[in-house]
């Protein structure tokens, strides 16, 4: 019976329209829209990757080998199962141009292809021509090159350049490469040549760092799972890596998935900010309904009936807010689809996806329940005799225990859903804990600010505007709490993201180059290493040279079990890894556990493993690691762990073996050179002229490439944080609007006592500025704390406060509250005191 009566009352209440609920709807809709939009874009990219997986991969399937081409038997099986096959060799080299006695060099990622390439898609060249014609060339073999590299080297079609010891003619520049997204991250722009043209280049010598990929077109109806299982069984001992069109660009897929998860968590932060606005709007609305609730109680309505009346009413409005958010979240990606698609290097398929919308709707529903249950529960705690005397303020602070339990369960459910959908429970729990801690800090800060303002008001005697402002902040109303919580949480999220972003930039673009080498040289042949070291030994500008023998291998087994069964998707077992050998540890090697083998050891293979990675993989001393190197399985026993610092961009290997274990294996050397900046160009010229096959990677250029990727990530995260801050500003506007009546009465009293409009406006402005500064300072502390926790514990990087971002947060808080306060100050100032005071009576 009470439910039917409550539904009828709620329906009648809703006839009054949406007045008082605009901020409620905006906060809820904006939070839901952010999550729905991010999810829709992520799903559009995933769908594009799935639909175009074969084109991105360059075939229906691919077999990849390290350091070698497939043997005749291996290639025979690949040809047997396919209808067409293309062979590709991929490696880094230096493109060299000599004109008028001056030589310019640029790092390039070379793709050497056969006549069958590309199996799928089309190369687009400028000037337009078939790829086979472009690579055929004339007197010299032809090549095509990425425009950025051609511009850097000053090359135009018809000009010549050198790769290793081979001259090429630039036939065209690349406008579109169909499988570039599937090739993964490269340190240099692309150059395509024919594999046959590299025979005299010296670039594919034994031990050189290159990979071969065999792209396959399969007969219709081929069983991809069966082929993968057969390939892994057949090539178990030869180190092949198999991939098919279902995961054509795994690196991009992982990146999109992880970025999408993180942005959803940023969206949840926005929903938390919006939740505060929702809660404040419900409290303000119920405070305005005092007379209605009083009348219902007087007429015999039960507490349960009143609670259900407003619960149903708020529920209906929540559904409207969620629906608006879903509409925006689905529409915005469609509206901006051309812009988003042009900015992404992968195909996207934009349409309305139910999955992300359902996920966003669930988030919105749980958020609405968590943040409205508490203020709604307070209606039960007010007696009929006191409802006519500011009922909401007279209710006790905490609702009945059943509502506290329900709120806690809903909050746990919200966090659990977020952990499930994000796929990373650790990050989700950190985010939820950070938001909860920020709310606690802000609530305590709001109480502290009120206490300080109350104590400081008498000291402002002689400054009436300041005294009135402090008196209003320290008064019995919750103005301070509304502003500090609403704006403070949004600024806290923005401050934390600003600190994380700033520290990532600092670690990569400023701190790292101070300790990083100038150049990373690879593919130094064993017969070249002595001459290479002689050139650097006599150069006073060279501070340090490190060298190490270099091979690459794939970890295939751990203690006899397939590596990925033991280690999952850990980066160490995903693909091939660098491997070296050493008779003795050098001066910079710190062995943390176990012992190094004797210098003349020639027994069973032993391995020293990086300590941190070993801990992540769950390895112990005595475990066996099987590594496939050049098609040969080597099973070694872990006899020691050692510290490896990959953050310095120096030489670092996860695995070091004893020399006898790799005896006779063809290999090259890698080297890092630490030199004065002004000497770097001459060092590169001398070494490149003497050894054209050597590839030099300038570390600062590699850092710039990583910084470009981080800029894209930071931009996406900043947009998410901006949505959170916008939600906070809407909540702030709602708080300012809710307090308009109190300010009108305050202005009327002050005018009656002789205060001028200018002084009253000054008081309002001071009040807003002080609250904004307080919210900004508290948010800054919470944001710095959150940024430190994420940087140190999740990203495992150093942390330093980025003061430019920090001061901007405080200034933003002052400006935001000042604008919101002044926007709702004009009507109170214009009101006539007599009318206001008469109405109050």
UniProtKB/TrEMBL annotation:
The chain crosses the membrane at residues 21-41, 262-286, 307-340, 360-379, 400-421, 427-453, 769-794, 800-826. It is found in: Cell membrane. Keywords: Cell membrane, Membrane, Transmembrane, Transmembrane helix. Its main location: membrane. It is a multi-pass membrane protein. Residues 266-378, 723-828 form the ABC3 transporter permease C-terminal domain. Residues 25-233 form the MacB-like periplasmic core domain. GO terms for cellular component: plasma membrane. PANTHER family: INNER MEMBRANE PROTEIN, MEMBRANE COMPONENT OF PREDICTED ABC SUPERFAMILY METABOLITE UPTAKE TRANSPORTER. This is Putative ABC transport system permease protein.
């Amino acid at each position: 019976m009470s439910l039917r009566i409550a539904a009828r009352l709620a329906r009648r209440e809703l006839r009054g329209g949406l007045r008082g609920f605009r901020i409620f709807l905006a906060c809820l809709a904006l939070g839901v829209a952010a999550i729905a939009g991010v999810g829709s874009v992520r799903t559009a990219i995933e769908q594009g990757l799935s639909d175009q997986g074969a084109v991105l991969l360059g075939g229906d399937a691919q077999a990849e080998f390290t350091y070698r081409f497939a043997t005749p038997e291996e290639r025979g099986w690949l040809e047997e199962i396919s209808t067409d096959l293309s062979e590709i060799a991929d490696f880094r080299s230096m493109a060299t141009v000599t004109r008028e006695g001056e030589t310019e060099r640029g790092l390039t990622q070379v793709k050497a292809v056969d006549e069958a390439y590309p199996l799928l898609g089309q190369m687009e060249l400028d000037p337009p021509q078939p790829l086979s014609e472009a690579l055929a060339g004339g007197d010299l073999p032809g090549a095509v090159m990425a425009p950025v590299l051609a511009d850097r080297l000053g090359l135009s079609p018809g000009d010549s350049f050198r790769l290793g010891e081979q001259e090429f003619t630039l036939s065209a520049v690349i406008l579109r490469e169909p499988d570039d997204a599937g090739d993964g991250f490269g340190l240099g722009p692309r150059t395509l040549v024919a594999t046959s043209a590299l025979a005299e280049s010296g670039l594919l010598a034994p031990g050189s760092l290159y990979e071969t990929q065999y792209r396959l077109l399969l007969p219709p109806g081929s069983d991809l799972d069966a082929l993968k299982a057969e390939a892994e069984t057949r090539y178990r001992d030869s180190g092949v890596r198999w991939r098919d069109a279902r995961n054509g660009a795994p690196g991009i897929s992982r990146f999109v998935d992880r970025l999408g998860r993180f942005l959803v968590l940023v969206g949840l932060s926005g929903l938390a900010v919006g939740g505060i606005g929702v809660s404040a709007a419900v409290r303000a609305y119920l405070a305005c309904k005092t007379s209605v609730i009083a009348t219902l109680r007087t007429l015999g309505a039960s507490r349960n009936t009143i609670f259900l009346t407003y619960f149903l009413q708020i529920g209906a409005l929540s559904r409207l807010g969620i629906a608006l958010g879903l509409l925006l979240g689905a529409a915005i990606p469609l509206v901006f689809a051309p812009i988003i698609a042009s900015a992404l290097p992968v195909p996207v398929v934009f349409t309305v996806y139910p999955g992300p919308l359902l996920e966003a709707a669930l988030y919105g529903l749980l958020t609405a329940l968590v943040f409205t249950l508490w203020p709604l529960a307070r209606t039960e705690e007010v007696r009929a005799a006191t409802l006519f005397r500011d009922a909401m303020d007279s209710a006790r602070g905490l609702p009945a225990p059943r509502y506290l339990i329900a709120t806690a369960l809903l909050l746990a459910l919200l966090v659990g859903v977020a952990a499930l959908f994000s796929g990373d429970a650790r990050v989700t729990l950190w985010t939820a804990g950070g938001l909860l801690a920020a709310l606690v800090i802000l609530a305590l800060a709001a109480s502290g600010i009120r206490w300080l303002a109350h104590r400081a008001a008498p000291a402002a005697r002689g400054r009436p505007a300041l005294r009135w402002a402090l008196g209003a902040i320290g008064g019995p109303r919750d103005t301070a709490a509304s502003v500090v919580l609403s704006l403070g949480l949004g600024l806290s999220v923005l401050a934390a993201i600003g600190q994380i972003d700033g520290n990532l930039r600092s670690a990569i673009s400023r701190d790292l180059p101070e300790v990083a080498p100038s150049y990373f040289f690879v593919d130094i042949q064993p017969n070249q290493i002595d001459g290479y070291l002689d050139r650097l030994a006599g150069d006073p500008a060279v501070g340090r040279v490190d060298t190490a023998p270099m091979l690459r291998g794939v970890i295939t087994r751990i203690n006899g079990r397939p590596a990925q069964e033991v280690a999952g998707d850990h980066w160490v077992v995903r693909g091939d890894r660098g491997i070296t050998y050493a008779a003795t540890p050098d001066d910079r090697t710190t062995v943390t556990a176990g012992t190094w083998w004797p210098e003349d050891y020639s027994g069973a293979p032993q391995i020293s493993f990086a300590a941190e990675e070993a801990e992540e993989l769950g390895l112990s001393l005595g475990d066996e690691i099987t590594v496939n190197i050049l098609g040969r399985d080597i099973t070694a026993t872990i006899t020691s762990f050692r510290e490896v610092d990959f953050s310095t961009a120096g030489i670092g290997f996860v695995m070091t073996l004893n020399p006898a274990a790799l005896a006779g294996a063809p290999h090259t050397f890698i080297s890092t050179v630490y030199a004065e900046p002004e000497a770097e160009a001459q060092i590169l010229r001398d070494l490149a002229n003497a050894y054209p096959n050597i590839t030099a990677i300038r570390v600062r250029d590699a850092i710039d490439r990583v910084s470009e990727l981080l800029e894209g990530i930071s931009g996406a995260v900043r947009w998410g944080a901006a949505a959170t801050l916008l939600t906070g500003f809407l909540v702030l506007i709602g708080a300012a609007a809710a307090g308009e009546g109190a300010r009108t009465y305050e202005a009327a009293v002050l005018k009656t006592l002789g205060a001028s409009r200018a002084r009253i406006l000054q008081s309002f402005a001071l009040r807003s500025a002080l609250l904004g500064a307080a919210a900004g300072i508290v948010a800054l502390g919470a944001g710095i704390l959150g940024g430190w926790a994420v940087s140190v514990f999740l990203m495992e990087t150093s942390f330093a406060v980025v003061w430019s971002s920090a001061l901007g947060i405080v200034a933003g808080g002052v400006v935001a509250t000042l604008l919101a306060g002044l926007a709702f100050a004009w009507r109170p100032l214009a009101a006539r005191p007599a009318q206001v005071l008469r109405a109050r009576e």
